[in-house]
């Protein structure tokens, strides 16, 4: 079994550097976000582009190819040859970035044979870092300032292993702040029908996945479109924290570097 932990610090440094580039734009009172509409009508800003360039440069020092939301479209005929690859979302939650609510992240995942084996999610406004490697487990580190790269010792010694300890009354469900659907509401109502009181919490971007990984929430149903770069890093983190990201059958884990990069609907929950 290959130990991918050697690449963890590279990914963490890249995510934090990217976070700084995003925050330089976010905090500049004179900044024009230069919002463009992509082909699918989702927004793209100069912060997305700056983050992409930094991450691409950092990960290019590794032996693995890079699949990024803001990179060039790579034919499946070429990607199908990639056993191991990086999957990157340089700015997950662009709508949250534009709204200035702080709920956006930098997502970097390493995927091997369709399975995410390393994940880094950096939340620059909150200065929180989530990371995981199959061989080490999943962790959360607070007070990670984007102006000051943490040392390897700080990352190893001060991070808290996930999941953290929370006591819930009933079931805590995390749902999208921007993409709530009727199917999601039906799933939540089904939990209620089983006699369980339900507490709802909302969040943006891949933070929803992190909330299940750290134990703040019990389940995250997502019955709306997402792409592989939206979930790969979070999937690595929940896997290492004893959870899984399943198809709606709640048995089959999601796979990556598929011909169609659109994810199926999914549910994030602890492995039973």
Ranges where pLDDT stays below 50 over 5 or more residues in a row are none
The tally of beta strands, per DSSP, is 14
Mean pLDDT: 92
Number of helices: 8
Rounded to the nearest angstrom, the distance between the terminal CA atoms is 25 Å
Radius of gyration: 18 Å
Name the helicity range: 25-40%
> Any idea what the shape is?
globular
Give me the oligomer status: single chain
Kindly name the structural category: alpha+beta
Largest sheet: 7 strands, mixed
Compressed to H and E, one letter per element, the order equals HEEHEHEHEEEEHEEHEHEHEE
Q: Strand sequence of the main sheet, in spatial order?
A: 3-4-5-6-7-8-9
- Strand percentage lies at 25-35%
Notes on the protein architecture:
30% of the residues lie in helices and 26% in strands. It has 272 residues and is α+β, with helices and mostly antiparallel strands. A hairpin with a 5-residue loop joins β1 and β2 (43-44). α1 runs antiparallel to α2 and α7 runs parallel beside α8 (228-240). The longest helix has 19 residues, at 8-26. It is globular. The two termini are 25 Å apart. The model has no long low-confidence stretch (mean pLDDT 92).
């Amino acid at each position: 079994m290959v130990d991918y932990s050697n690449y963890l610090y590279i990914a963490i440094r890249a995510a934090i550097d990217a976070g700084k580039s995003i925050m330089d734009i976010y905090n500049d009172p004179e900044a024009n976000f230069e919002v463009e509409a992509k082909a699918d009508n989702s927004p793209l800003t100069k912060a997305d582009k700056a983050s992409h360039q930094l991450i691409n440069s950092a990960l290019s020092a590794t032996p693995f190819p890079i699949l990024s939301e803001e990179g060039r479209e790579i034919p499946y005929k070429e990607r199908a040859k990639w056993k191991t690859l990086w999957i990157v979302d340089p700015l997950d939650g662009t709508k949250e970035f534009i709204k200035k609510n702080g709920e956006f992240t930098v997502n970097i995942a390493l995927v091997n044979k369709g399975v995410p084996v390393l994940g880094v999610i950096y939340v620059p406004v909150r200065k929180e870092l989530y990371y995981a490697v199959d061989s080490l487990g999943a962790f959360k580190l607070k007070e990670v300032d984007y102006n000051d790269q943490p040392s390897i010792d700080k990352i190893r010694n001060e991070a808290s292993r996930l999941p953290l300890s929370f006591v819930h009354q009933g079931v805590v469900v995390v749902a999208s702040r921007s993409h709530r659907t009727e199917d999601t509401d039906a799933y939540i109502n089904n939990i209620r029908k089983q006699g369980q009181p339900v507490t709802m919490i909302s969040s943006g971007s891949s933070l929803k996945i992190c909330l299940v990984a750290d134990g703040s929430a019990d389940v995250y149903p997502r019955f709306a479109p997402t792409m592989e770069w939206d979930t790969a890093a979070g999937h690595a983190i929940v896997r290492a924290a004893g959870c899984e990201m399943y198809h709606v059958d709640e048995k089959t884990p999601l796979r990556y570097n598929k011909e169609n990069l659109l994810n199926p609907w999914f549910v994030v929950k602890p492995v039973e």
